[in-house]
Amino acid sequence: MAGLASRSQLRMSFLRYALVSVPAILLLGILSGALAGSGADNLWYMALRKPPLTPPGWVFGAVWTILYVLLGIALAMLLHAKGAKKRGRLIVLFAIGLALNFAWSPVFFRFHEITAALGILVAMIVITIVLAHRLWPIRRVAAALMLVYLAWLMFAAALSEELLRLNPQAQAVAPAASSTDIRL
């Protein structure tokens, strides 16, 4: 007997996607940052001259946690949109955007390549604009979540551009020497 799914069945289907996508994206994002040594306590990053618009270090962790949750929800909505035109292509584009996102931390914090990291951000911005535009007719809430992400990416790009301007030789910036001496 074939029939349409009830509202509760549809809700449960979405929740199953979300229960996988949200923790997966959050975990991969945290793992990417941790493996790259990212954060305000990174010695190389601490040695850089920062623009006045740089928020306190804790803001980055809080914002990225929220954004990864929002991205996981948006992905769950996209996965749940079975039968939507070009859904498969949007899932691939979403995956490319996430791969770039997870690559950003190592490029910036591990390899000290602000220019390359800025290029990654520009690619992420373009992909996010395309995703938001193409998600709008399918799932407006998912598109709106992408716009929140887009706003942060644009801020991150502006911040990176200022870091590059203030630190033209950023790759050569040496972190402060640490000492193993014990002071009494």
Question: If you had to describe this structure to a student in words, what would you say it looks like?
Answer:
- With 184 residues, the chain is mainly alpha-helical.
- It has one domain: Ferritin, CATH 1.20.1260.
- The chain is 72% helix and 0% strand.
- Helix 1 (7-36) runs parallel beside helix 4 (87-110).
Could you give a quick summary of the protein structure above?
It is built from six helices and no strands. It is mainly alpha-helical and 184 residues long.
Question: Secondary-structure map with pairings?
Answer:
Blueprint: H1 7-36, H2 43-47, H3 57-80, H4 87-110, H5 114-135, H6 140-166
Helix pairs in contact: 1-3, 1-4, 3-6, 4-5, 5-6
CATH architecture: Up-down Bundle
Strand runs, count = 0
Rg calculated over all Cα atoms: 20 Å
CATH superfamily: TspO/MBR protein
At the first level of CATH, the class is Mainly Alpha
Q: What labels would you give this structure?
A:
184 residues; mainly alpha
